[in-house]
Specification:
mainly beta; 7-stranded antiparallel beta sheet
């Protein structure tokens, strides 16, 4: 594993149980692959009525995108980003909490630099796609980075 949970948590504003990813398996200038086991945690903050809906996979992918932004920026926490839109979202399962294996989260920067980027993403287990889509992210450089003065 290239990065542990603690190392990647330093790249995103999410803390505690809201940091959903467990590690980074690989990354390059345009792609990142992460893993997560937090979908099995009963204290996962995205659970509702004891369940974790498959749509929560979008948050897993968003965190992978944020980590990728930090890594491609030289290991600095990126400015805050906002999910502006989702396209071609496909859910192939209803829930994530009943998946016993580690989630694999892939994200690929398709286009954009600076304040607007578009990523394709997929959440899968053992090569079986659970959720996929494209996300447009707007980065707001005016927001002070958490932990930075």
């Amino acid at each position: 594993m290239l990065m542990t949970h603690e190392q990647l948590a330093a790249l995103i504003p999410h803390a505690g149980t809201m940091c959903l990813l467990d590690g980074v398996l690989s990354w390059d200038r345009s792609r990142i692959r992460c893993i997560a086991r937090s979908h099995l945690d009963m204290d996962n903050p995205l659970r509702h009525a004891g369940r974790l809906a498959a749509l929560c996979g979008v948050e897993y992918a968003s965190q992978a995108m944020a980590v990728h932004g930090g890594l491609t920026a030289g290991g600095e926490r990126p400015a805050a980003g906002y999910l502006a839109s989702l396209r071609d979202l496909a859910c192939h399962v209803a829930r994530l909490d009943d998946i016993a294996e580690e989630l694999v989260i892939d994200a690929e920067n398709l286009t954009g630099e600076g304040s607007r980027v578009i990523y394709a993403f997929a959440v899968s287990v053992s090569g079986r796609e659970l959720l996929s889509g494209r996300a447009a992210v707007v980065i707001d450089p005016e927001i002070i980075r958490v932990g930075k003065a």
